[in-house]
Amino acid sequence: MSGYKLAFKKAFPCTIPVLTGYLFIGIAFGVMYAEKGYSAWWAVLMSVLVYAGSAQYLAVNFFVPGISFAQIIFMTLMVNVRHIFYGLTWLEKFHQMGKKRWYMIFGLTDETYSLLCSAKAPEGVDEDKFMFAIVLLDQSYWVAGSAIGGILKNVLTFNTEGIEFAMTALFVVIFTEQWMNVKNRIPAAIGVISALLCLQIFGSANFVFPTMILSVLALFITRKRLEGEEENHAA
């Protein structure tokens, strides 16, 4: 148990950027959910059991007449299809984590994925416990924000227009931090170039999936060179 206590203590500073973003975005979700007439507890339950970020914002509009299950499944898949590629990256590592792997897969959001890729377990801290702590802390921020937002909606009235941009801002901050801290920036450059190219070709509504495919193909083709760069930097 003490191993987990140390892991959470060391993981918390790494998750502070996500804390500031998820708390605010979670509040926005709680407010939006409450505006539909649901209690704060339903917002909390959804954040505990679904925990899908932007898909939860989208899901607020599902609770209206005329939306079929097929539409819900398709739209949710399109919004979160990028997580398939995230999971492939960590497939082997999560498999080694035993029963914890199921929660690690469930809790792999955009921002958590970024932290897992960049944060390293300090000396004396079990890596599996450290990673588990990051994922659980990140979700706890989102759940807490959802609860606060649902409760605030019953006592305060304010305009939430544009509040969802906090999700984008948070991801930009994490990306910038990674860009500044790593020596090999080729993978990040591939991702940016792929996104810009697919945005021009497919438009803002359809570019995410093609971007993921193009990025994976480009990384696969340049894999040997990238591995060589990593070895040179390590040396």
Automatic annotation (TrEMBL):
Location(s), subcellular: Cell membrane
InterPro entries documented for this protein: Brnchd-chn_aa_trnsp_permease (IPR011606)
GO biological process: L-valine transmembrane transport
Domain of life of the organism encoding this protein: Bacteria
Keywords: Cell membrane, Membrane, Transmembrane, Transmembrane helix, Transport
UniProt similarity note: Belongs to the AzlC family.
Official protein name in the record: 4-azaleucine resistance transporter AzlC
Organism: Muricomes intestini
Record lineage: Bacteria, Bacillati, Bacillota, Clostridia, Lachnospirales
